[in-house]
Amino acid sequence: MTANPDRPEGYFYRAAASHFNGDIDSAKNDYEKAIDYGGNDSYAQAARTNLGSLYLSEGDKFAAAGQTQSAISSYENARQYGDSSVMQQAQEKISRLQTSGN
Q1: What span, in angstroms and rounded, lies between the C-alpha atoms of 50 and 53?
Q2: How many other CB atoms sit within 10 Å of the CB of residue 61?
Q3: Are the CB atoms for 75 and 59 separated by under 8 Å?
Q4: To 5 degrees, how large is the angle CA 30–CA 16–CA 58?
Q5: 64-81 b/e (C-beta count within 10 Å ≥ 16 → b)
Q6: Which residues, in sequence order, are CB contacts of 68 under 8 Å at separation 6+?
Q7: What is the pLDDT of residues 13-60, one digit of tens each?
Q8: Which domains does the chain possess?
Q9: What is the pTM of this model?
Q10: Contact by Cβ (8 Å): 89, 56
Q11: DSSP conformation letters of 47-89
Q12: Measured torsion, CA atoms of residues 88, 66, 15, 31, in degrees rounded to the nearest 10
């Protein structure tokens, strides 16, 4: 990436590796950079999808731990980045949390 720091593919692949290895904060940062540098290219689109899924999973972990506000925040981020399936799942989970008060 040092040779081409404003190309999205390097950030995308590094984010995917970080995500796979459990380094969620690094994955988020690099997916966001891939989106910023990629505009609407295929790497940016894939980064949006992966970032949405990452936030959805993060929300599930917060919800399971009883951290409702953190879960809702993560689900809202999932809605922002995810594809239509992730957006729908996130909205349903937000509604469920708000209804149950959990």
Answers
A1: 5
A2: 13
A3: yes
A4: 80
A5: eeeeeeebbbbbebbbeb
A6: 62, 97, 101, 102
A7: 999 999 999 999 999 999 999 999 998 899 999 999 999 999 999 999
A8: 8-100 (1.25.40)
A9: 0.88
A10: yes
A11: HHHHHHHHHHHHHHHHHHTT-HHHHHHHHHHHHHHS-HHHHHH
A12: 50
Side chain identity at residue 48, one-letter code? R
- Tokens describing residue 11: 């950030």
Q: Residue 85: its pLDDT value, please? A: 92
Tokens of 58: 């993060």
Q: How far is CA 74 from the centre of its chain?
A: 8
* Residues belonging to the chain: 102
**Letter for the amino acid at 19?**
H
